[in-house]
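Lecture 7 notes: from sequence to structure.
We start with the chain below.
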Amino acid sequence: MTLSGECEDKVLYLEGDKLRVFRGIIESEDEHFICLKRRDGMVRISKSHIVKIDQRRGGAP
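Predicted structure tokens for the same chain:
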């Protein structure tokens, strides 16, 4: 959970040949990018690199 108590989304993406995960809140998206708000700031991830998105809204994860 984030500091405000919201449930976090999890984005699994490719960085080179490695799978990586970002956790945070999806703030916005367009046809090419997703903007993820994290504790350390905003991150833009290209949808072409995303493997999976787990959206968690309310309740227990």
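Points to note: The radius of gyration is 11 Å. Residues 5 and 58 are 9 Å apart (CA to CA).
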